[in-house]
Specification:
- The protein has 2 domains: 9-275, no CATH class; 306-500, no CATH class.
- By secondary structure, it is mainly alpha-helical.
- The chain has 20 helices and no strands.
- The relative contact order is 0.08.
- Helix 3 (63-91) crosses helix 9 and helix 7 (177-199) packs parallel to helix 13.
Length: 503
Amino acid sequence: MNFLPPGSFFWLLVHELRISIRGSMRANRIGLIITAAFVTILTVFAGLPVAFALRHYHLHLTGVLVLAIDAAVLVLLTLLLSQTLSSATLALYERADLDLLLSSPIPAHRVLAVRGLAIAMQPLTIFLALLCPLDVPFAFFGHIEWLGAIAVLVSLALTASAVGLWLAMSLFSLIGPRRTRTLGQLLAAFIGAALFLAGQARYMFSLRIPSLAAAFVHIANNSLLAPDGVLAWPARAVVGEPLPLGVFAGVSIALFVGSVRALGARFSRDASVAAGVGAGSRRVSRPVRPFRGGALHALVRKELLLLIRDPALLSQVLLRVLYLLPLVFILLRNARIQAGAPVANGTGALVFIASQLAASLAWITVSAEDAPELLACAPVKGSFVQRAKLMAALLPLAVLLVGPIAFLTLLSPGIALVAALGITAASLSAGLINLWFEAPGQRRHFRRRGTGSLVGNMAVLLVGLAWSATATAAALGTPWSLLGLLLTLLLLIAFRRARTQPA
């Protein structure tokens, strides 16, 4: 970096990249190795063969293809926005070297430009890892124009970053710093989940709807989607036509540059305000009162309050809950029309997903304890604390699933009973496994909780699958459910005995 002027844009960018790469190498080397292996395999066994087979193929845009590409571009923009909005919100609160940079003679818009690029790069790397192995090989076989898809993806990431910054700053101005951190994270989660739910709408609400293919072709016949129509420009940019690609990239760059210049001063001011959140005047101390409801009530309430007060963590948990909705709707619909096998399969899937959600909540309450020393010194038994934490983990899950189970009871009491028992057993098992194979960590590392105990992670997966299969067999009314119950209990006992072995 000695050849770059200190404080310049590229000097800051190289600094940011170096810190990011260094942090990634230290935090998740196994993940990087797996990603590299995945990209290599995808290139060798998918990208190169397909590119070789289509080396003489020349793509011609049609209305159907234009609509398909435009829809894909819109979906990608939505997914990128859900990620960049979350990162843009956190950029105001995560300090790192932000205070030092904003107090230096470096213009605030330059600092924001580098942070904005970092925000865009976080989700972009994931999509590039999927797109490049399939797209780059075409360039080696004469279709260099198809690299336009990569340029469009980069442009979408810049656009999403700019929009995410505007949304985060607008929320900060409208509702204040405290609510922005929570609402920004939740809004980002809901944007991503809404796209998923929209794609599952036909499965959730009706079995008899007009053919999607016919409706798709009918829409594609619109003149605006013709190859020379206005709405065809994104598709033409994807296939590498110079003028549409240049306009697409130019608009994205102009939007990003204009946004960081317009928001630079506000970003500096809002970041300073965010740094003071929670550092203001403290409330007047009140007389100490005894715990209401006893120690169990206090411990459970403490865990639930910590979950509610952590917006980033709450958004990640709620995102998993939203992904349950299509399955719940399908299960209830099949139960309403008395579709035996689909209901049984849906019941098993619901049991498995509930076990995974219970495992996530149990990790938060058990392994992500912020004050383990304080609880260890408390005048209560360790087993009592564990029961309270397990109860706190399962209570939100019970509240979420009581509605679907009650509705199932009205339609099919027998299957509702099987679903309730299966969910209870699978959730308790997932919680107990988290107690047996505790992997201490921090709440902010929720997404990397899988790097903890290998045996514990395998136990959650295998026991969840076993309870799912048992619930499916029980819903079908087969005697194999008894064998499944026995084998699942034996598997759970085996993992219980293996808890003292190193993972």
